[in-house]
Amino acid sequence: MMIPVKKTIWALAALLGCLSSPGLCQSLPRPAVAQAISTMTRLIEDNYVFAGKGKAIAAHLRREYQAGKFGAVRTWKEFDSLTTRSLVDYGHDGHLYVRHDPNTVKDLVEAEKKAAEDKKAAPGNFTYDPFYYGEAAVENNFGFREVKVLEGNIGYIRLSEINLSEKSLPVLFAAMGFVANTKALVIDLQNNGGGGSAVGDVFQSFFLPKETPLLEFRTRHGATRLAKTETWLTEKKYEKPLYILVNGGTASAAEAFTYALQRHGRARVVGQRSAGGAHMNSWYPVNEHIFISVSTGAPTWPGTEESWEGKGIQPDHPVAAGQEIETVKRLIDKLARTE
């Protein structure tokens, strides 16, 4: 009888690893995992934008736990991966996920405490949000990675995320001021996973008239909110041709920006189909190790049920990766010849 040498070697290596570092082979405490599942399912049931779907997703996660799917996880990072896969496979929602990130959990807990204090002291007061006002936002320059003028006097702004707040408005205004005199503008949102704005739809307001309807947002409780361009923006609007670059990594708030401007005919979209993540999400701490993201709002084109959820945004000019800028230049030249 032949001895399976490779399997024996791997088994011996695993045993030696456990002997030298016992913690690596120990599963997470069962009560901690049970509590995490309980907290996550409650948060999904209480907050998911579509109540019926939220209950179904929570029930699915409970079944997976009861079947022992998460019983052998050794780290919270592994727990994050397994539960996220379970949620996404069942819910088909890219905004529904679990993350192992103790630093973000700490920020979320502090933000919740401060929000409660602010609400108690003066309802309606400013509430600190680490995404917009934390150190990471500043270190990332609020998503503004490149602002330049390409050959031919074409403006170019590349954003790695959408992060607009009172703190980042000067950066947005400086970027738009820098490209104000260009003959066309490219906004590169490739691999921009989204974000949000704490100051309304100010970026879109540079390109459309005041109070232009953009998107209608539906909440868990059936309420709707119509987002419009801002009336308070006094900076000069950009009225030259606008091109937005997207790809499969363009999602969420980056898609919302693109979708509204494309539907209004204000921008031409170039690149590859976007990710298809329309829902708005909120982050909730689960324990000191992990947080969960839950979809809490669903945007649609005003007066319809239409959105890009699950479908993505189809470019007006589909091109292979790496061909986007040259395609834009050809489009600008073609437009110039027809004027």
From TrEMBL:
Q: Which domain of life is it from?
A: Bacteria
Biological process terms from the Gene Ontology for this record are: proteolysis
UniProt keywords, alphabetically: Receptor, Signal
What GO MF terms are annotated?
A: serine-type peptidase activity
Q: Where is the Tail specific protease domain?
A: 101-320
Leader peptide range in chain numbering: 1-25
**Coiled coil regions in record:** none
What is the protein named?
A: Interphotoreceptor retinoid-binding protein
